[in-house]
Amino acid sequence: MTGLLGRLIERLPLDFRVLYRQFMLRVIDLEALSIEADVERFLGQFAGVLIMISLISALGAFFSTIAPPTTPEGWLALAWHMEQSAVMNMMLVVGLLAVIGWDATFPDRRDVMVLSPLPVAPRTILLAKVAASGALVCIAVVALNGASGFAWPLILGTNLGGLPGFLRLCAAWWFTVTAASAFLYCSVLTVQGFTALLLPRRIFLRLSAILQLAAFGLFLAVYFIEPSFTSLAAIAAAKDSRWLACSPAYWFFALLNQMNGSWPAGFSWLAWRAWIGLGTAVCGAAASLFLCYKRTMKKTVEEPDLVPGARGWHWTPRLGTALQTAILVFSFRSLTRSRQHRVVLAFYFSVVFGLAISLLRYELSGPTPLPVTPELIIPTILMMAFSVIGLRNVFPLPISLTANWVLRTTQVCPSEKYIAATRRTQLLFAVLPVWIASACLSLSFRPWIQVAEHLAVLALLGFAFAELSLIGFYKVPFTCSYLPGKSNIQVTFWGFVFVLLILAISFAPFEQSVLDEPLGYAGLIAMLGAAAAGLWVFNNHQAKAAVLYFDEPPDEVITTLGLVYQPQPKP
To answer: Which residue from 112, 103, 87 is spatially nearest to 181, judged by alpha carbons?
Structure first.
């Protein structure tokens, strides 16, 4: 099988194979998400995260047999719930991949400048880029369904229809998740392509950033808000619901059950929407890609990416000293103008946004007013932690190394002033927005005194998180050269998530228990205040002797020959 695949690949044109490999290595921004400059290793670890999720889901399938449903209706409800979860999870992953690789499929300035003088046809560039982007989607589909895509059909299909039921459900499962992935990815390409065709390039570049962030929010909001239908009565009751008619996730859920033979005939229109949507998205993506490569490649070179701002009066509010204001404004503009920084920050903020949407859904589904419980405390703590860590991980990525000489020659203040400005940036852009969002989400909770007490605890936690993130960080944000990351993303991601979850779950009941006890709450505030103050004093003390650095030195590697001297025994 491997030899046959190799021979088929060798039959492809050499220029296509070379371009495909290069585009595959660039499908994820190397400077934003890299592991020792090894994209193949990063893709393997990305697949490892999805495989872990698939294995957890597969274990859930076998655990469901411990206390299985006792009626066919119960098995059908379980099957429908897991099928909707599979479709929604797949569409969420592919949607986030499409946003992270926002510019991976369309030609950029570097592609045009390097490849245009070469004897390479534009269609070859197009096919190579599409193949590279499609390979990433295929990796996601296989990794996320590698275990669960067989475990759940085995358990559900066998109980509902024996061996033929398993084979039919397995085929329908894999076809549907593949079709749903193609639909969503092609839809993003269609929107992006026709926007690039219809608008001037500099306007498209500004709008592209807004579309990118809006897509992040849309995919997560839909994922957390969409209800789940587990019975025919629930679907019949929601027949006129906008969710059922307008959500592609339900279209492909209906398509899966139509192919499986378990979908009522009266709702076949829902499955037909999936077929129509898939055909429209694929045709739209093909047309937009073809037209972009025919019409916008010249525009990419002829029109500038950045243009000077309009002359006029510009007012910047004072946010502290002149140095602090300058670094705050510089950080804000770096985050808003750089695609690389937006993508990395949006990844962390997508988790924050998802937690906020989940908390909002809990509020809407529960009675009003709600008591202050761990259901409020845990999500807000997690939101604060992810926001601070996300901004801290964006700080080391440089915005323009060729302009760093300006910062080096103008370093006339002590290093502690720059570090204080970095602290203020962290508090203003990471801690304050999450605290305000948490305050807004707390409006449905009572009593007010407990809400105010929790917000005070959250503010101290945010300050402590910010101080923890700045330990050993002696740089001006976005100004130091960047070495590709050396940490294992899979281990770091799961380790951080599990440790943070354990801490938040352990802390929430304790905080809830002291909200009505003045002495206990005073002790909690004193403990958190002392920890935050201690971290602040430690960072200030370290900052007085710190030296700002603008170059990230590589680790010194000592290579040995492995030669060991062994003295010979005397005769």
So the answer is: 87
Nearest C-alpha neighbor of 430 from the set 456, 399, 394, 406: 394
**Contact predicate 243/226, CB 8 Å:** yes
The strand pairing partners of 370, in sequence order, are 445
Q: Are 282 and 186 in contact (CB under 8 A)?
A: yes
Which residues make beta-bridge pairs with 35? Answer: 485
What stretch of H or E contains 148? helix 148-152
Q: In sequence order, what are the beta bridge partners of 32?
A: none
Separation CA 373–CA 508 (nearest Å): 8
Average confidence (pLDDT) over 202-213: 77
The tens digit of pLDDT for each residue in 521-530 reads 999 999 999 9
Q: Which residues pair with 446 in a beta bridge?
A: 371
Q: How far apart are CA 557 and CA 146, in angstroms?
A: 39
Contact (CB, 8 A) for 178 and 145: no
- Kindly tell me if the per-residue pLDDT of 427 is higher than 90: yes
CA distance 169 to 317: 61
Do the Cβ atoms of 549 and 474 come closer than 8 Å?
Answer: yes
Q: What is the pLDDT of residues 218-255, one digit of tens each?
A: 887 788 777 777 776 777 666 656 777 788 988 999 99
For 419-483, the DSSP string reads HHHHHHHHIIIIIHHHHHHHHHHGGGEE-HHHHHHHHHHHHHHHHHHHHHHTTT--S-TT-S--P
Q: What are phi and psi of 371, to 5 degrees?
A: -80, 160
Of 127, 131, 137, the residue nearest 90 (C-alpha) = 137
Q: How many whole angstroms from its chain centre is CA 533?
A: 33
Q: Using CA atoms of 207, 188, 494, 349 in order, give the dihedral in degrees to the nearest 10.
A: 30
Could you give the 3-state DSSP secondary structure of residue 371? strand
> How many of the other CB atoms lie within 10 Å of CB of 90?
25
Say if CB 145 and CB 86 are below 8 A apart. yes
Model-wide pTM > 0.85 = no
Distances (CA, A) of 125 to 23, 28, 348, 434: 9, 17, 32, 43
**With 0-12 CB in 10 A as exposed, 13-18 as middle and 19+ as buried, what is 200?**
exposed
Query: Distance (Å, rounded) from C-alpha 199 to C-alpha 217?
Result: 23
Calculate the CA 127 to chain-centre distance.
Answer: 27
